[in-house]
Amino acid sequence: MSAAETSEQVEPQVRRPLRLAELWLLFLAVAAGVGAFAMVGLSIEDALPAHFWFESLALVVLALAAHIVVRIRAPFAAQTILPAVVLLNGVGLAMILRIQESGARGAAGADVVRNTQWSALGVVLACLVLWFLKDHRSLRKLTYTAMFASLVLLALPLVPGIGRSINGAQIWIHVAGFSLQPAEFAKITLTIFFAGYLVTNRDTLALAGPKVLGLQLPRVRDLGPILVVWVASLGVLVFQSDLGMSLLLFGIFVAMLYLATERFSWVLIGLLLFAGGAVLAWQTFSHVAQRMTGWLNAFDPAVFNAVGGSGQLVSGLFGMANGGLFGAGWGQGFPYLVPFSFSDFIYTSLAEELGLTGMLAILLVYLIFVERGLRTAITVRDGFGKLLAGGLAFTIALQVFVVVGGVTRLIPLTGLTLPFMAQGGSSLLSNWIIVAILLRISDSARRPSALPVRGQVGPGRITAADGEHDAGGAPGTTPTQIVRPVPGPSTTETSLGGEA
C-alpha cells in the first residue's frame, strides 16, 4: 500500500452501542419517580394525587426523549449519567408534590407543575446542546467570550429595573414575568473560561516559581487570576449577599487549578484566601455574621427565635431525626413544618420520609454521577476536555456537599439548592446543560479513535494531534511524545457500549 493510500485511511465502520443498559436503568429511574407519585397520594388521601397522570407522563416522555437524542448524537457516552439524573429529578418532583398535597401553610410556595415545566425546559435545552455541540473542543474558542459572559451574568442582578432582592439576596432578575438567577449559568461559563485559560497556561502555573519547605509556590505574577477570582467571589458576597454562590465560584476555580497543575500549593493558597475572606466577611457583613451565629449557636433559644435565626435549621435537624433509619414513609412525615422544605431544605424533607437509608441511596446516585464525570475527565484525549469535564463534575459535587453540609450543620447554611431535586428553574436549567456537556465529552472520550493519518508509531498506535499535549502525560510533553492505543471494533466497549 502506498503512502498516499495510507494517508487516506478513514475511520472504520463501528457498530453503535445498543444502550440496553441505559434503557433498563431509565426504566428503574422512571419507576421510582412514578411509584413515589402514587405513594404520596395513597398515603395522604387513599387515592392517586391530582397531578399523578400529568407528572408520570411527563417523566416518561422526558426520559425517553433524552434517551433517543443521546442514542443518536452521543451513542458512546456513559450509560449511567442520564438515568442517575432522571432518578434525582423524579424523586425531587415527588417530594415537591408531597409537600404541595399536604395543604399546609408552609407549603404554599410548592408548585410541582411549574417545576415539571422547568424540568421539561431543562431537558429540551440539554437535547439542543447535545444536538448542536458536535465537538466539545469548539468551546475552547469561546474562552474569553465565556469570561465576558460570566461577568455580565454576575452583574445583571445589580442592574436597576430588572434586579430583584428576595429574602435579602440580590441574586435574581425579573424579565417578562419570569425570574432567573444568572449566577447559576455563570458557573458554566466560568468553568469554560477556566478550562480554556488553564490548558494554555498550565505549564507556567505548574513548573514556575520557587520552592519553600518542599512546597512548589507560584510566581507572584501568576497569582493574578486567582486573586481576580477571589475578589470577584467576594464581590458576589458583598453586593449580592450570596454566600453560597461566592463559595461555589471560588471553589470551582481552585479545584480546576489543582486539576491543571497537580500542585497542592494552589489548593493551600486558595484555602488561605477563602479563610481570610470568610473571616473578613464575618466581621464586616451582618448577613454573614447572622449565618455564622445560627450555625455556632443553633440551639440557643435567643438565636432560635430570632428573625433569620436558627429556627429553620433546627426544625430540619428534628425532621431528619424523626425519619430514623428507614423513614416515616411517603406522606407520613411532617416535612412541611420546615420553611422552604421544597427548595433549600428539600434534603431534610426527603430524609424524614425516606430515612437514613434512602438518603444514603440518593447520595450514592450523586456519587455515581460525579464519578462518571471524573472518569470522563481521566479518559478524554484533550487537555481542555479533561479540565472542562473535571470542573463540571466538581461543580455538582461541591454544590451537593455545601447543601447537605449546611442542613446537617456540618458547615454554615449558604442558600444553594440541591441539584436536580430542589424547586428552582434556574438551577434545573443550568444543571441539565451541565449534563449535556458531560455527555458530549463522555461520548468523545469513549468513542473509538480514527485510524492514523500521519505520525504512525506502530501497529494500532497513533500520536496526539492538533497541538494537544495532554493525554495523560506530564505537563510540557510535546505531541510527538504521546502515543495512545486505537481501540478496534471488536472491543467490548465498541460492540456492547459497556461502561469503561
Automatic annotation (TrEMBL):
InterPro entries cross-referenced by the UniProt entry: FtsW/RodA (IPR001182)
The keyword Membrane is assigned to this record: yes
One Pfam family in the UniProt entry: FTSW_RODA_SPOVE
Any one annotated GO CC term: plasma membrane
GO biological process assignments: cell division; regulation of cell shape
TM ranges: 23-44, 50-69, 76-97, 117-133, 142-159, 171-199, 266-285, 345-367, 387-408, 420-439
Localization: Membrane
Molecular function terms from GO: lipid-linked peptidoglycan transporter activity
Amino acid composition bias (Polar residues), ranges on this chain: 489-500
Keywords of this entry: Cell shape, Membrane, Transmembrane, Transmembrane helix
Stretches the record annotates as Disordered: 456-500
Membrane topology recorded in Swiss-Prot or TrEMBL: Multi-pass membrane protein
PANTHER family, A to Z: CELL CYCLE PROTEIN, PEPTIDOGLYCAN GLYCOSYLTRANSFERASE RODA
Protein name according to UniProt: Cell elongation-specific peptidoglycan biosynthesis regulator RodA
Originating organism: Xylanimonas ulmi
